[in-house]
Recover the amino acids of this structure.
């Protein structure tokens, strides 16, 4: 039976009224990933706070947002979503100070060990926080599509999952270009036909149904390979 993969969910519903985001922490991940993503999604950032105020002020100036002088000032932001971009050992220092019922995104991992993770869980439940851990790939288009395919029963009954992630982000591609790296099979003297055949048949390496098999069943695998 033909499978129409075009019907698979690949996007998360946008909030009808985005709430202001307060970022706690001003490390590299905030400037490289969090703030660019919020701007791309057109989500309002109320400001950011860091123990190192100079670092927070410099990053805030770069992104034209406010730098809070104190954690108390940041937390006082009304109706905010709190993005805790912190080392795992710092979550338990900040979470108790958030308002009860607050919405919180925790940078992974959720604590440094099982004991800390359990304490974070108990604290979130006790304060009735709407909390999530920043496993961003869970909400990526490819994972949303896989989850939808599973819900539709297209992949049968799952008994085992093995994930191999090979991802070239825009920043990485630009860095490779700037370094003069080769980005095509032809550049490393690999015939494109051989490269495409390898991609077409790599799904046969393992005796299990994968997303490549789903693409093949829908008749889309060849065109997808041709676009690479």
């Amino acid at each position: 039976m033909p499978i129409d993969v075009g019907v698979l969910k690949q996007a998360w519903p946008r909030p009808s009224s985005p709430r202001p985001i307060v970022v706690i922490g001003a490390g590299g991940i905030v400037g490289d990933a969090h703030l660019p993503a919020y701007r791309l999604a057109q989500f309002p950032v109320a400001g950011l706070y860091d123990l190192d105020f100079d670092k927070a002020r410099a990053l805030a100036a770069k992104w034209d947002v406010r730098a809070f002088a104190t954690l108390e000032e940041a937390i006082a932001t009304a109706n905010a979503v709190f993005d805790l971009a912190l080392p795992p050992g710092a979550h338990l220092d900040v979470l108790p100070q958030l308002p009860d019922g607050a919405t919180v995104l925790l940078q992974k991992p959720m604590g440094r060990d099982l004991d800390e993770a359990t304490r974070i869980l108990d604290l979130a439940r006790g304060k009735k926080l709407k909390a999530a851990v920043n496993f961003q790939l869970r909400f990526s288009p490819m994972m949303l599509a896989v989850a939808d395919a599973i819900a539709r029963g297209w992949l049968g009954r799952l008994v085992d999952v093995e994930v191999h992630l090979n991802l070239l982000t825009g920043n990485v591609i630009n860095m490779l270009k700037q370094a003069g790296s080769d980005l095509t099979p032809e550049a490393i003297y690999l015939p494109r036909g051989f490269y495409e055949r390898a991609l077409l048949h790599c799904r046969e390496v393992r005796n299990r149904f994968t997303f490549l098999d789903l693409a093949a069943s829908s008749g889309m695998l060849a065109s997808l390979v041709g676009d690479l």
User: Anything to note?
Assistant: The two ends are 27 Å apart (CA to CA). The chain has a mean pLDDT of 87.
